[in-house]
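Good day; I would like, with your permission, to put a structural problem before you. What I wish to show you is a protein chain and, alongside it, a tokenised description of its three-dimensional fold. Thank you for your consideration; the sequence and its tokens are set out here:
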Amino acid sequence: MKKIILVFIAVLFVSCQSTGVQVTFDDEKSNTIREHLQYYVNNDLDSLMALIADDAEIYLNSEESVTPEEIRTGLELQHSTFNPITISWSQEEGGEDIGAWIESTNYPGGPANEPASVTQVWFTWHGTSNLTGETISVPAHIVYVWNDDGKVSTQYQYFDSVNINTAIEAALAAASE
């Protein structure tokens, strides 16, 4: 009888472990993305790009993907147009600025999907134009999908790029005059 009770308790304990979606905030992947964002702010593009798989698909507000090299070119343009570039996130006005809201989620496999590991980031991007001195602020949401090698295989970036692109175009036009 004792053996049956022990087996029942063991089965109950194992069956109570979480097998569904798991969201974390201070895990290895979230902390890696914190470093990744700091590389961006510091214009350390070599370190930033080291996290991105060579064959990564990157979607910038679009259904069409761009290559990691195209992303690097865009980041170089941002850093040549804006200084400083910063990111911020605060739950309330005047509250503590944590830089970015970052969470990682592990999704189990299901009938229509393979297991997936995803890190999501929300922040406000701030850049001061070298040409005009104007600071542009843009809310952003980035989704990083991890591969089995610990690199980002897919990235989705959502933000209103109109003011950023306008400032970059103005800086390029001024430089060509």
Q: What stands out?
A: The first strand starts at residue 22 and ends at 24.
